[in-house]
Write a structure and sequence with these properties.
The chain is an alpha/beta fold. Helices cover 22% and strands 33% of the residues. It has a 6-stranded mixed β-sheet. β7 and β8 (143-147) form a beta hairpin.
């Protein structure tokens, strides 16, 4: 399929706010994308990639709780003594149940430093979405190339910021922006302990 472009101004603002003098740890829930590597190579960053959906035997939301917990633990890169500054969820939270979102964040939250950001793209107005997560590849700090890899559709959960915040212990909703194509861009911040 022909890729589409999507502006992500909240992601752009987070990237612009990275301090050139500091080392940052970016945790990517998706798979390695050349654009992500390119953008963060301009900063002193360590990019950890979890590739959660790659290890899944079938649709993420259909995995039993125990199996999902095991998938999280086997997919998670080692912390190496550093705390995460930015967590990129792309659109993968759309493909998890609220219980799975809670399980994922319960495992990962201890790795985030206070003030760390969590960025997510959520299907908001569309009733359906592709059955498999589209590929999001940054082509600039606030511009994403979106490639749909599945013509089949499933119901979109249409999570609100409040729905997500209730499943994210230690995080608070910071900003939301309505994007083209019925998506919303969410930014959450890790609360101070």
């Amino acid at each position: 399929m022909e890729p589409a472009e999507l502006r992500a101004p909240l992601l752009e603002s987070v990237i612009a706010g990275l301090n050139d003098e500091q080392r940052h740890v970016v945790f990517d829930l998706g798979v390695v994308r050349s654009g992500t590597v390119s953008i963060f190579s301009d900063y002193r960053c360590r990019l950890d990639v979890m590739a959660l959906e790659v290890g899944a035997p079938h649709r993420l939301d259909q995995i039993e709780a125990e199996e999902f917990q095991a998938l999280i633990r086997t997919s998670m890169p080692p912390a190496r003594g550093e705390s995460v500054d930015l967590f990129l969820c792309w659109n993968l939270l759309n493909y998890l149940s609220t219980e799975q979102i809670g399980m994922l964040l319960a495992e990962l939250t201890p790795r985030f430093r206070p003030g760390a950001r969590l960025h997510a793209l959520i299907e908001y107005s569309a009733r359906t979405m592709p059955a498999s997560p589209p590929a999001f590849n940054p082509v600039g700090p606030g511009l994403l190339e979106v490639t749909t890899v599945d013509d089949n559709e499933i119901a979109a959960p249409r999570y609100s910021a409040r729905d997500l915040e209730q499943r994210m212990p230690g995080f608070e909703h910071e900003r939301t922006m309505l994007l083209g194509g019925g998506m919303q861009e969410y930014l959450f911040r890790r609360r101070s302990a």
